[in-house]
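Morning, I've got a small favour to ask if you have a moment. I'm working through a protein record and want to make sense of it properly. The fold is given in discrete form, as structure tokens running alongside the sequence. Can you walk me through what the tokens say about the fold? Thanks so much in advance, here it is:
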Amino acid sequence: MLTLGTSLGATATDGSTTLTLQYSVTPQADAAFENTLRRSSIERGRLLRGSTVLSDESSTVFYGTSPVRFFGSTDTDGYTVVTSTGNLPVAGLVGQSGAFLTSITYTNSAKTTVVARETQTWSLETGPTASTAYACLNSSYLTAGGAPDGSAAQCYLIDTTGNVSGLRVTITADGQTVVFR
């Protein structure tokens, strides 16, 4: 997805109103991050209630391949640096999971003020058919002071060859959970 690009959507309902999540990844030219040339892509997420745009955010993600590793990202909300990372599996079975990364978000690249922290794991979960599974990135967020600040699971529907055909996103914040499918 990072090197080829993708565009996916999912919906949830809020009473009688439909919430729509539009997610896309657009590969970019290699760019410098933390003084090293890295691969980069723009991730964009739009949230709509009916036809009204509630949120439209994008960030530039810096990563490497073989194995896939994330180094950080930049956006209008901050400058995120991955502080430790593991490898995503190249193959696996439903039910497997593991640690992936931890990161710190600062207000900017000067890295003087911490805004938030994140811990991310990966998991392979049952898909809707015998030949599909969800490849998930599960995030737990903390405030700058270390208090819990919600969680999210970004799950990509994949087939046995790794092709992505769908999206499921679960967001939990302030005691509320919304699942986009």
The radius of gyration is 16 Å. The CA atoms of residues 65 and 106 lie 25 Å apart. The mean pLDDT is 95.
